[in-house]
Write a structure and sequence with these properties.
Number of strands: 2
Shape: elongated
Helix content: 40-55%
Number of domains: 1
Order of helices and strands: HEHHHE
GO molecular function, one term: 2,3-dihydro-2,3-dihydroxybenzoate dehydrogenase activity
Family: Belongs to the short-chain dehydrogenases/reductases (SDR) family. SDR65C subfamily.
Pfam families: adh_short_C2
Strand order of the largest sheet: 1-2
CATH topology: Rossmann fold
Protein name: Tropinone reductase
Number of helices: 4
Radius of gyration: 16 Å
Keywords: NADP, Oxidoreductase
Length: about 100
């Protein structure tokens, strides 16, 4: 959580500083995402399924995220539809942080 706090504060500070130049600053804080790297790590450790189950059991949506769910959020933030959003850290974590 300490790193998330640092990223959140950096996002806010840069957004405040760069707003005058019409530059928006936002960050995305993904939770557990089902990637090839994560799958490889879980396969290589003895209790990978147990760890994956523990990770999802603490997430209100009871699953890991998909890479496309994170990339879609990033794409949205780049669109003009998000032109009034700045200084935000968006947690895409299935509700884990709530």
């Amino acid at each position: 959580m300490m790193l998330t706090g640092a990223v959140n504060q950096l996002t806010k500070n840069l957004a405040l500083e760069w707003a005058k130049d019409n530059i928006r600053v936002n960050s995305v804080a993904p939770g557990n995402v089902q990637t090839k790297l994560l799958n490889d790590i879980l396969e290589n450790i003895g209790e990978g399924e147990k760890i994956a189950s523990a990770m999802t059991s603490q997430t209100p949506l009871q699953r890991m995220g998909e890479p496309k769910e994170i990339s879609s959020l990033v794409v949205f933030l780049c669109l003009s539809a998000a032109s009034f959003i700045t200084g935000q850290t968006i947690n895409a974590d299935g509700g884990f942080t709530i």
